[in-house]
Amino acid sequence: MKIAQDQSVLFELTQPSEAIAMQDLHDYFDWMFFAN
Fold first, then answer.
1. Alpha helices in the chain (DSSP H)
2. Of the candidates 29, 31, 26, 18, which has an alpha carbon nearest to the alpha carbon of residue 8?
3. How far apart (Å, rounded) are the C-alpha atoms in residues 3 and 13?
4. Nearest 5°: phi and psi at 28?
5. From CA 22, how far away is CA 36, in angstroms rounded?
6. Contact at 8 Å (CB) between 20 and 11?
7. Is the alpha carbon torsion for 19, 22, 28, 29 positive or negative?
8. pLDDT tens digit string along 1-36?
């Protein structure tokens, strides 16, 4: 589990804009789901 977490952090450091965009999409779809 520790290795997976390290890989996630490394990915976010190397691909910050993509990680942020994916989080925004995730939040958006969560909002759409609960709004309905």
1. 2-14, 16-35
2. 18
3. 15
4. -65, -45
5. 21
6. no
7. negative
8. 466 667 666 666 666 677 677 888 888 888 888 876
**Six token digits for residue 11:** 């990915």
For residues 22 and 16, what is the distance between their CA atoms, to the nearest angstrom?
10
Q: Which residue has the tokens 């952090």?
A: 9
What is the Cα 15 distance to its own chain's centre? 11
Distance CA 15, CA 31 (A): 24
Task: Return the structure tokens found at 34.
Answer: 């609960």
Residues in the chain: 36
Amino acid symbol at 20: I
